[in-house]
Amino acid sequence: MFDYGRYTPYVLTSYGIAAAVIIGLIVWSVVRVTSAKKKLDAIEPANKDAAP
Amino acid sequence: MAVMSIFANPHRFMAVSKWFAWGFTALGSVVILIGVYFGLFVVPPDAVQGDSARIMFVHVPAMWLCLLAYAFMVGASLISIVWRHALADVAAKSAAPIGAGVTALGLITGSIWGYPTWGTWWEWGDARLVSVLVLFFIYLGYMAIWQAMETPQKAARAAAILCLAGAVNLPIIHFSVEWFATLHQVSMKASNEFKYPMYVVALGYLALFGGLTLLNMRAEIMNTRAEMLAQRRQATAG
Amino acid sequence: MSGSFSVFARELKLAWSGGGGAALPVGFFAAASSITPFAVGNGVENLKVAGPGVMWIALALASLLPMERLFQADLEDGTLDAYAGSGIGMEGIALAKTLAHWIATGIPLAIIAPVLWIMLQGPPEASWFVIVFSLIGSAAFFFFGSIGAALAAGMRRGGLLIALVTLPLYVPTMIFGAAGLYAAASGGEWAAPLMLTAAAALFGIATSSFAAAMALRTAID
User: Fewest Cβ atoms nearer than 10 Å: which of B94, B213, B224, C149?
Assistant: First the structure.
């Protein structure tokens, strides 16, 4: 599937690191905002069912 | 107190940002995937550099974004210093980790691209490489200030000052390195038919940056509001 | 004007006496330069390659040492608040303090630099260059450092933050100053690096007091 000659490991590693960083940033942000919402809802149940 | 007002009544920002935050995150992710698909499977190898040039599709947009994120932070810091608007502080603080992440991504992918293409993992004589490396340290220093300062208000002021000082310093650093070692001019000559996935990925990165910054701003505001309410509750209960 | 001059005079006296004055940074500068041959090799050729650069780094780090104390004491005992209310202007205060510390510590560093230069097998005839570069460079390092010192004022153990924040600001001075020292050692073109190092220092002197003042005003709030 991936055949880039002698560059294959370089291309794949680069895309792999890009994926890791981007997915990492997304996961970190989503976890942060959902846990913040949980924390706020415990104290202020006003908008509990709204999205975080 | 203008500083506290955004946390006392964040409803307008929270209401407006909700759809943009999640929407841009999802949209950006999809667009990046599309661009990556084009970059890895659709375009034929570049005439000059072969398949190694595919790395540019994730590397170059990362470099664009790292500068854009810092420019965003500079703008927010200026607003913070001049108008003292707390939302600007939250915006700058939220953008920083994302900017730092893509800066690291750009540096690493650039290094990996450099090795098979030009035979070297790093080049101290290249003003862009060195400037971006220094920018990465400025990001780290910026985030350290938010962690280290006693109160968020002091951290916000100090961080804004550092952000602006860094902005002034970066062109000077770029010039200094260029002056010191005009070694090689690395030109990335590739045809436009080859390069288009790069622009797709760039748009995806941009949308993702917007979405993630907004998500982190929402998290920041919710956390601060929760702490404020908890303190108030403790004060009235005691 | 007399107000700022008396502030400056006080700062000079304090900088000279407080904490042994220049002794610690000068000692560090000498020590760091002295262990260089152990790390890079003690042959003349090795030292010609590494000596000037390492000495310049040692000068930068030695200039960083007094930064933690620059504003800390006056912040803690309320003197900064008194200065703020005195009408002199925080920019002038920051300038006066940094200038005083540079005179008390930076000039001694520059004076001892040629001794270390010769120890690291640098050509003795370049000693005047070394003094001039070190005077200008230490001024740049002190004034850029004052920005970090002001940002971290009021923090316990702010030294690490000062270093992290200040080192990016040091990069142009690093590049031009070291280039000048290498040129002085090999008899090459030293005028351009000298001009550029001086430009970096002047830029630091001109702009640092504004950034430091902003940070100090935040710290005393």
Answer: B224
